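> example.struct
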């Protein structure tokens, strides 16, 4: 499951709240915890941009309870939460200060009640032991575990505890630079590194014309970076972005000239989509020659009829294939991480691909025998 982040502020004055909300929006963090906020302030926040507000105000996007609201008796807390659920359908977050073992037990019991959606944990002197215990205890539940931290170092540790880590982190900060670095940290944890494979080119030949898809993203793609695309869901080729200087046309570093409409592209959470299904607002994975990944947003998809090349390669004795446009600007990536034009490809060249043993059904990896040829 993807990691997420909140920004937490103690401020109740509008000018301070406004700056925190603006900094969060500019850093692509879409949720802010503001325990005490007025209806007027909520209205003004909505004019700044679309962002989720978590607070004690019943008109906020998510309701917040903390140690001031809950008692030491679990039965009383269950009754309180049950009444809240009856009154509205909003999600509920409970912030618990872990001062003793009893607080840890209360956090566990409330999390297992099915009446709250997020449990936010704050330590007296931040340490990982209560988080370790609760992550292990709540491993098979649907509760989202959030750690309240004061700095980036503690945020990184929280995301990594017991390998699984907490689901989210609430950062107590009003420093725009730290908030931006926090956003980058979240992206890093949500960008798994892939193990890339090497295949050997066996054939490159023209096959006629077809409908080709260009993926224009909302990001600038780097040299050595592209997308994993192919005719087979179990074998995708690293197709380089149009970020390489050439004598024919200007670079389009936001674009990957991906292939024909039937081909697959790798998306977040190890899912694939047909190129023909992509549209503005979808997310796909940008992948480097080293297997580093990041989510990028599709700005538009452009489909045009173009001459096409069939690319055949061998990987562990099996032939894998994809189809790309017949043009000098269309490039794969060599085993050394260098871009290579499809017009320059020849038998014996080594290129980067990504293979997997499982088949796919509706873009999801499954245990099933499927023959692709």
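> example.seq
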């Amino acid at each position: 499951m993807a990691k997420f982040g909140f920004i937490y502020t103690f401020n109740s004055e509008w000018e301070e709240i406004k700056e925190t909300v603006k900094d969060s929006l500019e850093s692509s963090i879409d949720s802010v915890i503001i325990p005490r906020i007025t209806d007027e302030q909520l209205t003004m926040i909505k004019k700044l941009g679309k962002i989720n507000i978590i607070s004690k105000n019943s008109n906020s996007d998510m309701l917040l309870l903390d140690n001031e609201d809950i008692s030491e008796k679990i039965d009383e807390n269950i009754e309180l939460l049950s009444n809240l659920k009856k009154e509205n359908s909003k999600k509920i977050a409970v912030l618990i200060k872990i001062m003793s073992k009893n607080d840890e037990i209360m956090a566990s019991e409330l999390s297992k009640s099915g009446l709250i959606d997020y449990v936010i944990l704050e330590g007296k002197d931040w340490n990982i032991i209560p988080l370790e215990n609760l992550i292990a205890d709540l491993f098979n539940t649907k509760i989202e575990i959030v750690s309240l931290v004061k700095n980036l170092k503690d945020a990184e540790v929280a995301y990594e505890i017991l390998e699984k880590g907490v689901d989210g982190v609430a950062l107590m900060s009003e420093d725009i630079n730290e908030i931006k670095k926090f956003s980058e940290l979240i992206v890093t944890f949500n960008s798994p590194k892939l193990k890339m494979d090497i295949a050997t080119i066996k054939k490159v030949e023209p096959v006629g014309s077809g409908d080709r898809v260009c993926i224009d993203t909302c990001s600038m793609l780097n040299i050595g970076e592209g997308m994993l695309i192919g005719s087979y869901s179990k074998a995708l080729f690293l197709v380089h972005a149009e970020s390489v200087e050439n004598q024919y046309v200007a670079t389009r570093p936001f674009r990957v000239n991906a292939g024909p409409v039937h081909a697959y592209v790798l998306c977040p959470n190890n899912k694939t989509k047909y190129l023909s299904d992509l549209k503005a607002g979808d997310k796909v994975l940008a992948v480097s020659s080293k297997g580093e990944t990041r989510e990028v947003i599709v700005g538009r998809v452009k489909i045009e009829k173009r001459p096409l090349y069939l690319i055949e390669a061998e990987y562990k004795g099996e032939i894998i294939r994809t189809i790309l446009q017949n043009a000098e600007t269309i490039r794969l990536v060599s085993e050394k991480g260098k871009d290579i034009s499809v017009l320059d490809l020849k038998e014996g060249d080594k290129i980067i691909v990504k293979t997997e043993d499982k088949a796919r059904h509706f873009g999801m990896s499954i245990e099933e025998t499927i023959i692709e040829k």
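> remarks
The longest helix spans residues 74-87.
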